[in-house]
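step=predict obj=Arabinogalactan endo-beta-1,4-galactanase n=367
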Amino acid sequence: MRPSIRALATVVVLAAVVVISPVPASAAPLTMLGADVSTLQRALDLGARYYNASGVAADPYDILKSKGVNYARLRIWNNPVSGYNNKAKVLQQARAVKAKGLRLLIDFHYSDTWADPGVQTPPSAWASHSLSQLQTDVYNYTYDICSSLKAQGTTPDSVQIGNEINVGMLWPQGRVTNNNFAPLASLLKQGYNATKACNGGTQVMIHTADADSMANARWFYDGIRAQGVVWDVTALSYYCMWHGTLANLHNVITDVRTRYGKPVVIAETAYQFTTGNADGTGNSIPGTVLCDNIPATWAGQAQQFTWTQNTARNAGAIGVFYWEPTWYAVPGNGWDPRNINGSGNGWDNMAIFNWSGQVNPSVVWTP
């Protein structure tokens, strides 16, 4: 996810009502009830306050836990200009996460800034490196971050080798062109091997934003599997306004789960709670863009998230992560790591905290 660029995309309004059946008695519970809280440390450093449903100030991790969260996701950038989401800050935030009894997912972007389906820019320090050098870079960097986390008692429970890598990572060397998955596969293998060398019990996820298309998901995961890539969990992003109906999501989850024989996680999802905008930066997802006729209200946000969880559970997924639920409009916590003070927040209508920092009382994570 990259808020500024997503805002420029053409958005299709999904107005058809989709009825999700009750959870069948045979459905296994969701065990990974996650929240990506990558901007939270910056918000707290700026003095942001968070309030529970009763309007009482509280630790945001405690508020999330009271909502059912048991897993925190943190992205890591190699050398961002902002000085946030780098190694030092991730180590710091990982201590806070583990101190609250939460499990930890580290999201490697292998970049100094946002990596997503539209851009996968190598870190500046790796910009001129050959594919062979990048293989070494990925191994060494992944091992260093994982082992540093382990050394301080915050071993990651899971890691992602890349973020939304629909057509590869570390472009151009690791980009899939002419259906050639070999370069990308060589990088993914290094990330997997480094993680397992650090800690054999840490799960390795391969993450794409292919929840919209069974064909796209098969193209990608078939491609890396044919090259001998091994992974533990298949991770997908799902934003209903970009990735289609819940019925389609159910079909994609079911297909990738059975086709590859691996657990499936929705690594990112979210829904808007307002049509308004808290700052001068346009919202990534306008509040008028609705799914299933669900309104952009607190009740609507909670309903869409519940339906997404129900769909994932019914399809046999093991977890759902809400993307940046704590990223409400705090001046100085902008989207652009090159100008974190001067850029705004395109996600202020998608967080589960309103612009005063009070949590949506209706949003819950449900096993």
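step=describe
The radius of gyration is 19 Å.
step=end
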